[in-house]
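Final paragraph of the annual report: two paired records, presented back to back.
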Amino acid sequence: MPDPSPWLAPEHEVFRRALRAVVERELAPHADEWEAAGIFPREIFSLMGKLGYLGLRYSPDYGGAGLDFWYTLILAHELVQCGSVGTAVGLLAHMEFALSVIDARGSPEQKAEFLAPAIRGEKIAAIGITEPGAGSDVAAIRTTARRQGGDWVINGAKTFITNGTRADFISLVARTGEPGPKGLSVIIFPTDTKGFRVGKALKKMGAHASDTAELFFEDCCVPLRHLVGEEGGGFGYVLDHFKGERLVISAFALGVMERLWQEGTRYAAERQVFGQPLGKLQAWRHRLADVRTTIEAARQLTYWACDRLNRDAPDASLAVSMAKLFACEQVKRVANEVFQLHGGYGYIEESPICRLYRDVAGFTIGAGTSEVMREIIAREAQL
């Protein structure tokens, strides 16, 4: 689908075309294999690092490109076109979800030790926020980090952690102080630390190629110097980090909608019913018209949110919440429409529609549920 948006500059489109060629050459041919295996090869991190895609908006001092958020948005949008949403999720969980807080708040030493090799794809990163008893309620995190000599001693558990089975380090949110949001901090946690254990790999409804795991911490000691930013600043850092993560998922949703549109319109043109193409029936012409309208509305809302985030505007959180709510709710509706269009063929496992139908289910949950997005919007609107 052509991109009529006035938001993007020519250099953004040049970047998109080059990236699309990489996706078609290096990722798309292997999508089925990786989805079946439940994980994509570690070498893909190295490949994307060598090509410069893992540090798009980070400082050139540590191997990044120093670009604006539009490039990250385009990356997320194009990666889901490879046919494996899980691969896109794993790569963005590494480069955006886990690394953004280190880039924004980390010390030069932390950036040299962790950010730089992660940008090169030599180390894999994960973000450690969600716990068995703390999902949307981040302030309820119970994993603790207490000072002992020159170390943090960490105890607790995390769950639903993307890249959890193979991360080399985790941007870990833990409780270093009092109950509530003021007691949370971010600590860089190397996974070769004694007392750390990966639980079972979790089998998900969709996004199969992204590994997801339970993590356990038992008297794990990491140096005090691994504290990111200020002690007690973790809750604020997480809220700031969530804006980028939520916008990435909005871009995922937009990219999947466009893939669904391509699959749907092709099938509607080829499938013959009652002596004519399925797409010539008024019922489906009108439903597909609604789908196209929805996609364009989601695009403009997502791009507006990216513009606000890029400018660090006061309403950036509001804009991002609106974009995530709308795009992620609507991609499920679009998936349902295209699934229905395909009839029995959409229900078969080999169909890309079947996979995409499953994949999008998690978009209204990850990085803040639709209910949380509505609460943020209502609060910003002073309701």
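The closing record of the year follows.
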Amino acid sequence: MDVKKRMTELVNLLNQYNYEYYILDAPTVSDIEYDSLLRELEQLEKEYPNEVLDNSPTRRVGDYLRMDLEEVHHSAPMLSLANAFSFNELIEFDQRVKKVAQNATYVCELKIDGLASTVHYDQGLLTLGATRGNGVTGENVTKNMLTIKKLPKVLTEHVSLEVRGEVFMDYATFNEINEERAKNNEPLFANPRNSAGGSLRQLDPEVTRKRNLNHFAYSIVSPSNYNLHTHMEILEYLKVLGFNVNPHYRHCQTIDEVIDYINELDQLRKEIGYPTDGIVVKVNELDLYDLIGTTVKSPKYMIAYKFPAEEVTTKLRDIVFTVGRTGMITPNAILDPVIIAQTTVSKATLNNEDFIKKRDIRIGDYVVVRKAGEIIPEVVSVDLSRRSPDAKPFEMITKCPACGSQIVKNDGEAEHYCLNENCEGRKLEAIIHFASRETMDIEGLGEKQIELLYQKGFLKDISDIYLLKNYQSELLELERFGPKKVENLLNAIEKSKDNPLDKFIFGLGIRYVGSKIAKILSSIYETITELSKTTYDELIQIEGIGEVIARSIIEFFENQQNLELIEKLIQYGVNPKGTVKTETAPVNYFNGKTVVLTGKLTRFSRDEASELIEKLGGKTTSSVSKKTSLVIAGEDAGSKLTKANELGIEVIDENTFLQLVEPYMDK
């Protein structure tokens, strides 16, 4: 195996999935699949530390922020948590903690499946609310946070403090919203977690208000300022201040008590009316946190135990095929409806022909369906003991289900494709993709509305969306298209003309160009016209874009039909601009400095220290020169320390470094 190539593949995949999960609120893979890939990457990085990539997701919390929300620099990084997937891993966590903190006890809390947030209070008044974002920089959502009924706007005491918590949507609210959207022929939300994330990050607070979000508080930044010494004291003080604190928490003296409580909550969570995906286990004694330490991405004094995915057996009634916007043919399982994670599942993807044949999945089989992380249902396996003699072996179709064209499968690929550019199925899916929330985000133009408008002849390609204003009277004659709805739709279409370029590029449906690649392109090319004139040689010089993606982009813009489509869109006023976005770091000791690390560090790995310095606005280099601003000397520092002293460069030890970065580390 080419280790470096595999690590690059894993980093690119995981960063794309992180962007879809944290920013688009639209994950495309299950938690189980994501965690499996992440663990593979972590193992490779452990075995080959010199090959670790700078943009590895193991070194960061998140990647991107929405371009249309004001940025907020967190006073202390909002770190993610390391995960445990078994009790053995919890025991290993306990052993690591007890090596340096023998007297540590634990607090267990339900891990709410929502969106991490932070709120600031000045003399008891709520003044700022923000999302986690990339851990260092979040998004200002103050106006939207003010619409959350369970979040106090005025505290019971006149204190100034910052509180971390989780914004979420309960199942009852989620079901009510989807019922209403179904009545209006609007696309349904996938799950409460995505709904909460999308609702909190709306530009219009009134939209957020109608979504009836909820909030649980779970920590205070710099708790020692309030004479708090344990996490249990933090939770009790939060309740005194008026915060909504999840009632399902317990102080446990040993890891055995932790495991007992997890088993108890695992049964209880099925009756709880809001989404959860695990248990957070954290050291109770705050004075032990510095002793135990933290990594750049996650604290070492707490861990998230993930609940096993729910699995249910049901009958596979049929396998149907759909064609996507790129022509990819996908087999889908039609199932007898079953309840998994408090939602009804009647359909699951079967990915491709290889996936089905490897598992010998047949029509009429009883299959095990898993809903991992309360997100995406997937067929896991077949219950062969219940297979009927009449079970029908799978046969891959040879023609497109939408247009009847011959489908093809390229060497080295698992998927089949319809290559007919005039395929009605592809054209319809292209319009649906272009208008979706992840791309141009045209509110009121969901899948059902597009299908109706396509059938009626109003939409033939994506450019026709911007001509709908010419058919206002005709639209009013359609079912469920009342005056207010038509007005809102046309306003949303007009508003979409000013979307960022990355949304537009992603919306065009260029094969292999997902949201992350679109973001990269929009940071380099100012307009879609400029991108259309790029060359293959230019593209492959861009970090993150390989030969396959570069060829796909060039082929897209060599197609005259695509160029004519873009010209029409520009003519209709759709010509978004790209932006080269430069993030600024919070003002601190390291901002703007060139730093060299030398010797052995005991509290951080070399990579962790470098990452933290870079997040705080500095940069690290491997050699000492006149351009070096600062040298951090660990144990057994050698020639670099000698040279720094000769050049008169400032030198600090690891303890001083820890004191300087401590204000920016989550407590």
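Confidence is low (pLDDT under 50) at residues 60-65, 580-586. This concludes the annual technical report; the extension proposal builds directly on these records.
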